[in-house]
Amino acid sequence: MSRTGDQELAKGVGRALAGALLFALPLLMTMEFWRLAHTVERYRLALLVVVTVLLVLGLNRSFGSGPDGVGVGGYLADAGVALLAAAVAATVVLGTLGVIDPLRDWRAALSVIAMETLPAAIGASYARSQLGQGSRRPAGTGYGHEVFLMTAGAVVFAANIAPTEEVVLLAADAGPVRVVLLVVLSLVLMHGFVYAVGFGGQEKATSGLVRSFLTLTVVGYAAAFAVSAYILWTFGRFDGTGLTMAVSQTVVLALPGSIGAAAARLIL
What is the mean pLDDT of residues 216-240? Predict the structure, then answer.
């Protein structure tokens, strides 16, 4: 590899580390998350790791691989860099803060780092591929690509808030009317962010307002709802609760999740 290539690789890794911190720092500083990471069941943690790897692979495939589009090997390598950068960023920050001590209790440290890797790796993937000079144009197009990006955006926002006790407290106080109002508010905010308020990257409802609302906004909210439910289940928030409480918690978390989904459509 040439000196220029080495420099670009180093810059790319640096962007990945910065992106990991940018997307995951709120979660790194959340005490409830540290506690949940020590109690999460092993099979849920293993499934989360699998989901994280698949999501990062999909993101790097969507972003394209390398400056010249070097195919499958390129996006696999990019995904590996993103996952490694996420793990390193989490280890350094949590170790410096004294939250984990890999030398004394590597199992506990590994649990915390594995759970942290989800939002951090998404941030690393985005920053490495999209925030550098001469950033790549996304390789993916079409309806499925849009839904996938909305799902990824929902993951980042939902994962950073799901560990907090406020989600449970708000859901416990929310009656049926408030739950419905939260769903309506989420849909209105999603649609407004993408089509109405003039953000950079704003889209036009070329297929008609109603069709765009049904096929993108509603589907995007459904993706945010599913992501929120999965993350809450992973953290054990549904254990010992009834269906009504589980739905209420999911609707509460789907509010920030839906904002993340809308933001992903604008940014990505």
Answer: 94
Amino acid at 229: A
pTM of the predicted structure, to 2 decimals:
0.86
Residues 6 or more apart from 190 whose CB is under 8 A from it? 217, 220, 221, 258, 259, 261, 262
Chain position carrying tokens 């090997």: 73
| Contact between residue 82 and residue 104 where contact means Cβ atoms under 8 Å apart | no
pLDDT tens for 54-92 read 999 988 887 755 544 456 777 788 888 889 999 999 999
CB atoms within 10 A of CB 98: 7
From residue 135, alpha-carbon distances to 65, 128, 139, 225 in Å are 11, 9, 12, 31
**Predicted confidence (pLDDT) per residue in 156-197, tens digit:** 999 989 999 999 999 999 999 999 999 999 999 988 887 765
**How many Å apart are CA 216 and CA 194, to the nearest integer?**
10
In contact, 67 and 132? CB cutoff 8 Å: no
Q: What is the DSSP letter of 1?
A: -
How far is it, in rounded angstroms, from Cα 58 to Cα 110?
Answer: 24
227: confidence class by pLDDT, cuts 50, 70, 90 = very high
Q: Which residues contact 86 (CB under 8 A, 6 or more apart)?
A: 16, 20, 24, 116, 117, 120, 121, 123, 124
Give the Cβ contact number of residue 31 at 10 Å: 11
In the chain, where the domains are located: 1-140, 142-268
